[in-house]
Amino acid sequence: MRLPLYMLTFLFFVSCRTSRTEVEYLNKTEISEYYDNGEIKSIGAIDYFHKEFNNFRVGFWREFYKNGNLKSEGNYKLDTYKQCCTGGICNGYYSYKYGEWKYYHENGNLKTKGTYRMGKKHKKTSCEGGDEINFGYITNSWIFYDINENEIKPSQEDILEIENSSYLDEFQMSKY
Question: How far apart are CA 45 and CA 61, in angstroms?
Fold first, then answer.
């Protein structure tokens, strides 16, 4: 009687474990997103496996302003974080920016460019205590420009605007 109970308990714990590994995608699909006015909003690749419900960004992406000018360009990776689901622990997905990125003013002039320094950031999840996710931070090597492309010292608001856009979770990329 005890042996089946121990085995059942062991199987329960093993089946609820999740591994935190960077998601490797085998197949990706190029997509274009459009504004209501018909202008291109973004062009890039999504993870093919999850495309039915979410547009998880992978690889190189370009985003545009409504006027058609380039807004930003750079690379995304797909990763997971811990969620608590009805059947136990499960994975939540998110795309995060890495490597070199360029951002532009609405007039098309360069706003900032730099390489994200990868670190960890706490994310609230449905699990007590949340989880740590990969997050791109801005370093002193980033160069910022005003609307006329004169080099400037960035404000804290400028830095937060870029850092706050450095990841997209499954709720921000949902098709529904």
Answer: 7
To 5 degrees, how large is the angle CA 45–CA 23–CA 74? 40
- On whether the pTM is more than 0.85, the answer is no
The pLDDT tens digits of the residues spanning 68-120 come to 999 999 999 988 889 898 888 888 888 899 999 999 999 999 999 999 999 99
Q: Are strands 167-169 and 110-115 parallel, antiparallel or unpaired?
A: unpaired
Residue of 139, 133, 137, 117 lying closest to 168 (CA atoms):
133
Given a contact cutoff of 8 angstroms between Cβ atoms, the answer to whether 115 and 137 are in contact is: no
Element (H, E) at 80: strand 70-85
| Three-class secondary structure of residue 21 per DSSP | coil
For β-strands 151-152 and 131-137, DSSP reports them as unpaired
